[in-house]
Design a protein that fits this description.
twelve-stranded mixed β-sheet, mainly beta, 385 residues, Thrombin, subunit H
């Protein structure tokens, strides 16, 4: 990241966001006629490019901000992406075992999002705990002023599906971020919840059980339709959800029948131009390119919150250079984990449009929400292969 660009954003970012038509700004690769130039700078994103004579003087975007040249690029406004209505009777809603990328929701009201991480993490003064991660707003009603969701129950799926078992309790929230619409410095929209079921925590497979290969891809769904895991192919599978030896769950790809991806290999960082992918309950696994870092924007939450401003985010957009799908994110994908090309978890998706999404930096999620986690968990344990 450029210190000069960061300084310009720090000093003038909120003033630029106040201008009409501006949806966000961040450090990004400059574009000309829709093509990337290879040069990085300060990019201001607008809903539409408008003739200069039709813009009020106070809404004009300066060519230079704090000594840094600006670029102007068109982008949709960002909205939080839970699903409140239009719940389809999809065949794959109820999952046992559930995995990263599957649908979850709050037990107390009807909406849904995505479980973005399943892992076993040690905490200060605790034994290791099986936990899940999603967005705070996935488990919070937008129509209440209450912010606290501690001990709220989480269900899988988030909405009843015709002909499938009813949503079941899978855990409860033990830590979450809060959002403040009066400040521009929000960084995280996240909720961690314990994974449990009646009778105790999930049982785990024997140590040393490896990630499923192609043989397993065609068999896991058939195994789990019975609602529990049995001996299959000589590997004794026990668990609720489905764990690897290191207690990280598989990632499901709803776009491919029986499609699964390996568990994350670590936590990583990304830069402008890096390719990433996410797994969400609505659009499945889709790819995109990190277009901006230190991204600052307003996100529409609707309900009681309205517009909430965020800083130091990742902005990912579909990329014509790689033939990415036209729609890379939709309502219901909130809470998705974002991964780099080597399998590192790098972000937590929480907002966007059809062609882009915004993600919290994953290290910031842990540090802001789980006090003391950096003392017991390496937040930069990138994969080595």
């Amino acid at each position: 990241m450029s210190k000069k660009v960061d300084a310009a954003i720090e000093k003038a970012g909120q003033r630029i966001l106040d201008k009409r038509n501006v949806v966000g700004l961040g450090e990004a690769e400059k574009e000309k006629d829709g093509r990337k130039t290879g040069k990085k700078g300060l990019t201001v994103y607008v809903e539409a490019k408008v003739a200069k004579n039709r813009i009020r003087e106070q809404d004009l975007i300066p060519k230079i901000v704090e000594g840094v040249r600006t670029d102007v690029v068109v982008l949709e406004r960002s909205e939080a992406l839970p699903l409140h209505e239009g719940f389809e009777d999809r065949f794959d809603g109820w999952r046992r075992p559930f995995m990263m990328g599957d649908e979850i929701g709050p037990t107390y009201h009807l909406q849904c999002g995505t479980i973005g991480m399943i892992s076993r993490i040690p905490f200060v003064g605790w034994t290791a705990q099986d936990i899940g991660l999603t967005n705070w707003h996935v488990l919070h009603s937008p129509f209440t002023e209450q912010i606290d969701i501690l001990d709220h129950h989480v269900s899988q799926p988030g909405w009843p599906k015709h002909g499938q078992p009813a949503p079941e309790f899978i855990g409860k929230v033990f830590a979450h971020s809060t959002l403040d619409p009066t400040t521009p410095y929000n960084k995280v929209d996240a909720a961690f919840f314990t994974l449990e079921k009646p009778g105790g925590n999930p049982r785990k497979p024997a140590p040393g059980w490896n990630a499923p290969g192609s043989f397993w891809d065609g068999q896991i769904d058939a195994i789990t339709q019975r609602g529990y895991l049995k001996d299959a192919g000589g590997a004794h599978l026990l668990g609720w959800p489905h764990y690897h030896a290191n207690f990280a769950a598989l990632i499901r790809d709803i776009n491919a029948p029986g499609g699964f991806r390996p568990q994350p290999l670590g936590l990583g960082t990304v830069e402008i131009g890096d390719r990433v992918w996410k797994s969400g309950r609505t659009t499945g696994v889709t790819t995109g390119t990190v277009m901006a870092t230190n991204y600052n924007c307003g996100v529409s939450y609707g309900g009681k919150l309205g517009i909430v401003r965020f800083t130091k985010q990742l902005m990912v957009r579909r990329d014509d250079d790689f033939n990415d799908p036209e729609v890379i994110v939709s309502p219901g994908d909130s809470g998705s984990g974002v991964f780099d090309e080597t399998g590192n978890l790098v972000g937590l998706l929480f907002a966007g449009g059809k062609k882009h999404y915004i993600a919290n930096v994953i290290q910031t999620v842990f540090l802001e929400v789980l006090e003391g986690i950096d003392e017991v968990f390496n937040l930069n344990r990138e994969a080595t292969s």
